[in-house]
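Why does this matter for the project? Reviewers at the last site visit asked to see concrete outputs rather than summary tables. In response, this paragraph embeds two records directly. Each consists of the residue sequence and, immediately after it, the corresponding structure tokens. Nothing has been edited or filtered.
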Amino acid sequence: SGAKPLYLSLSFIIEEGFPRDELNKIVDSVQKAAQEAGVEIVTGDTKVVHRGSADKLFINTAGVGIIPEGVDISGGKARLGDKVILSGTIGDHGIAVLSQREGLSFSTQLESDCAPLGSLVAKMLGASSDIHCLRDPTRGGLATTLNELAKQSRGARITGGQSLCIERI
């Protein structure tokens, strides 16, 4: 959306018996990430549920920010000739999450590409007022994100080669 992030809510649903040292490590990590993103955690909630009622721990967040004047970014605004620019590698986050969930190990170290994007977005908006849409490909990756953009912009075709171009169909 191009919004400047300001505040975050943070809620936990913790299964009875979840190790306190693991929770402390998670809270420290969340605090560090919030500081890096320049947001304040201003509200939240914690619930402890009976053993077996949750998958150890659920974390829920919601963010609040402001959209700068003159910024109007959405997936429905993709148009003919727009460039798709990637700010990082493809698939790192997905494979890192999958390997943790499934207990997979690889010969190389996997790292999620999770990072605060607020300052990057602010720099992009400062460099150009002609940005139509922004996306952070998460679940489903790049292919799903491109498909969503095509649908939201009411029909587009993504063509490939060394670069991708959006073409109206």
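We now turn to the second protein, recorded in exactly the same manner.
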Amino acid sequence: VIGRGWNRVTSDHDPTAHAEISAIRDACRTSGDFSLAGSVIYTTCEPCPMCLGAIWWARIETIYFASDRGDAARIGFDDAALYREVSLALPDR
């Protein structure tokens, strides 16, 4: 384990402080590199588009998650509008 993270959105008053982002930041500090190529990330829920982008930029190779976006929506964390928005062509956003 080179990095750990947990959701700190409400405690840090930071909408970007998702668990995946926190774990990536911690892993990059530990490794001394922005690239986590060859790494694996484990997360409770399917990463949102922001976290997925960070995972790609960090070059993390594999993602494992226990719950999908449908599970998240059922407990009040529905990102469906965001997924629809990012799937649109730029002129349609």
